[in-house]
Amino acid sequence: MITGYGLHGRGDEAIDVFNQMKTEGLVEEGMSLFLVMNEDYKIRPSEKHFACMVDLLSRAGRLEEAEALINQMPFAPGNAVLEALLSGCRTHKKIGMGIRTADRLLTLDSMNPGIYVILSNMYALGGRWNEVDYVRGLMRKRGLRKTPGYSLLEEIIHILIGKKSIKCWRI
């Protein structure tokens, strides 16, 4: 497929297929290591191990598998596991699963503004504006505010300006 796309001038698609192939390979390798850990070395996976697997599956778009893994965990999932799934739902626009996951997270941590923001954004993606307003109202009622974004570039600029090593910026 990669060669076919390349020969027909569709370089972007060739790169996409190549990246998908790499991602799938990493997922399979990660799953293999996860299973070997328990079966061969008798190391019981902790929540951090499960969170890594859910994150790996979620990033690859294999959200149903990630959710099934969560449901098979020998203990209740904590924030790290559910946040990994929620992030994947947002990335891959799985609105229904994302809303369910955010609801589960809010039962664990109702004062985390990030969860409300993601939930609100998911409702907006689905065109569910009444729910968007409701979630934003809950945030206001609970006194929660979204933390403003702060880029790495801004951090570098502040560090350099603080050292007075910059005389002129060209962008």
Automatic annotation (TrEMBL):
GO terms for biological process: plant organ development; RNA modification. NCBIfam families: PPR. InterPro entries: E_motif, PPR_At4g14850-like_plant, PPR_rpt, TPR-like_helical_dom_sf. One of its GO terms (molecular function) is RNA binding. Coiled coil: none annotated. This is Pentacotripeptide-repeat region of PRORP domain-containing protein. It comes from the Eukaryota. Keywords: Repeat. Pfam families: E_motif, PPR. Gene3D superfamilies: Tetratricopeptide repeat domain. PPR repeats lie at residues 1-28.
